[in-house]
Inverse folding.
């Protein structure tokens, strides 16, 4: 199993430059061309290559599209909308999701104390304005943005957006923002309905396609997200947000080189007055998964140079430091990053990921517990803690956490973890049901196939396990569990020499206690 850097969340910002359609057409395929090149390097059937690889990553992307904090609406004009989305992107990917892919929590704040004073004053002003004009939809929109982005009061934001829509049912911005807030509150059906309504009001809108891709990323439907991003880019080739969601989707599928290329494209599109620090943060995460630890540290340093108190970047940097063997430095970095982190629940989850990466599952459980106590909707904290509970042999606790994670978001990776623990506990019928559901989703991940292989191996279906393990590696050659399973399966089939090559690679790619025990 893998260090879960979810979340979330790799969205991007817009650019003002307009290109000719013919020139832009080739640019739209930038990430896809890189993917084809990277894919050509993967040949699992031929055995491990000599290239350097990265620790496997459970990175669901938790990215979120954000709205402008101002009077103008998304669709007032193309230029204003792009600028609004630029502001919005300060919330990018942390995943994963995580990353998570989704590895980033979507709402970033600046100085917390100063912001609190400012938002209290602004909220009082808006309350008075709404008392004077109770039917002004823009006032409710503005207060909803304040609640959501600055005060972390999503339920209040949702209420204000519903009031906005009641007053002005044609306001596309309100539907898009309510979709984002609804997804955060795990109201997925209503969030999808809001995107569909926005699409009906503004057919062929890049903003709608990007928001729908974002929602699909939350549900880990990476292939659909890629398709919607490509539709957005066909309409608006310089759509910064679309490149970001595209990077998030590719990272969710284990195509880290492509994800990094998409984020690099974002950096090229927005250099003035300075690059966005979260672009460096996100690209550093992709480099970490590709075992480019020095490159990952360089990118996180670049993020911290722009924003010295960006706790998330400091914690992610600690992953690469730990991978290089600098454990004391990593722990110190993580501790400082936790103090600086603007969203405490996210900080504790990310530090939990670090300790799980280090094999210190007791400490990981402690950190995940703190994250959950501060945010009961933290899907990736339940999933990460479930993995650590499993490693500690606390199987019933693991089962409860995976069940809660599936209840919050029945994405394919989480379902496959639940099936795996059900198999270990002897609940074979439940395991069959849940692994089948995971495999039949539109974007099953590499982790889904490695967990399916583990279940088949436990039943001594060696041929079936071998097929699934190879499929897992075809999707993500950095998945340490898949290398371990392939070696274990081949050894059971009597191919000891070939098996050892895979087992050695599993140790190279893995981290303490990362790979499934042969008892499976």
């Amino acid at each position: 199993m893998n260090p879960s850097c979810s979340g979330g969340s790799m969205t991007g910002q817009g650019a003002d430059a307009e290109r000719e359609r013919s020139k832009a057409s080739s640019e739209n395929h930038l990430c896809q061309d890189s993917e084809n090149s990277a894919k050509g390097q993967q040949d699992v059937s031929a055995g491990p290559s000599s290239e350097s690889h990265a620790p496997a990553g459970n990175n669901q992307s938790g990215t979120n599209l954000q709205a402008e904090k101002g009077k103008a609406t998304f669709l007032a004009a193309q230029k204003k909308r792009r600028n609004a989305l630029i502001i919005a992107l300060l919330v990018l990917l942390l995943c994963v999701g995580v990353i998570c892919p989704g590895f980033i929590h979507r709402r970033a704040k600046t100085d917390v104390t100063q912001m609190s004073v400012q938002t209290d004053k602004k909220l009082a002003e808006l309350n008075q304005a709404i008392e004077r004009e109770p039917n002004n939809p823009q006032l409710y929109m503005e207060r909803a943005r304040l609640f959501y982005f600055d005060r972390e009061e999503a339920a209040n934001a949702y209420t204000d957006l519903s009031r906005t829509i009641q007053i002005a049912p044609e306001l596309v911005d309100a539907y898009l923002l309510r979709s984002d807030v609804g997804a955060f509150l795990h109201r997925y059906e209503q969030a999808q309905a809001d995107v569909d309504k926005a699409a009906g009001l503004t057919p062929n809108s890049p903003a709608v396609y990007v928001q729908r891709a974002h929602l699909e990323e939350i549900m880990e439907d990476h292939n659909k997200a890629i398709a919607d991003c490509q539709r957005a880019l066909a309409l608006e080739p310089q759509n910064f947000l679309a490149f970001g969601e595209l990077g998030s989707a590719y990272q969710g599928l284990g195509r880290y080189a492509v994800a990094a290329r998409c984020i690099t494209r974002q950096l090229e599109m927005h250099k003035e007055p300075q690059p966005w620090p979260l672009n460096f943060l996100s690209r550093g995460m992709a480099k970490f998964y590709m075992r480019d630890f020095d490159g990952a540290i360089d990118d996180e340093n670049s993020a911290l140079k722009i924003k010295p108190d960006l706790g998330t970047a400091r914690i992610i940097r600690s992953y690469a430091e730990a991978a290089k063997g600098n454990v004391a430095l990593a722990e110190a970095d993580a501790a400082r990053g936790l103090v600086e982190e603007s969203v405490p629940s996210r900080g504790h989850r990310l530090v939990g990921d670090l300790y799980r990466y280090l094999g210190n599952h007791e400490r990981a459980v402690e950190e995940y517990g703190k994250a959950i106590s501060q945010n009961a909707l933290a899907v990736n904290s339940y999933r990460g803690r479930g993995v650590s509970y499993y490693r500690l042999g606390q199987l019933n606790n693991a089962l409860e956490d995976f069940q809660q994670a599936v209840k919050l978001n029945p994405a394919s990776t989480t379902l496959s973890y639940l099936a795996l623990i059900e198999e270990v506990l002897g609940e074979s019928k439940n395991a069959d049901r849940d692994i089948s559901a995971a495999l039949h989703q539109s974007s099953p991940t590499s982790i889904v196939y490695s967990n399916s292989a583990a279940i088949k191996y436990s039943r001594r279906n060696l041929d079936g396990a071998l097929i699934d393990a190879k499929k897992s590696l075809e999707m993500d050659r950095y998945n340490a569990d898949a290398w371990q399973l392939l070696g274990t399966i081949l050894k059971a089939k009597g191919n000891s020499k070939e098996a050892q090559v895979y087992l050695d690679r599993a140790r190279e790619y893995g981290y303490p206690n990362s790979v499934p025990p042969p008892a499976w």
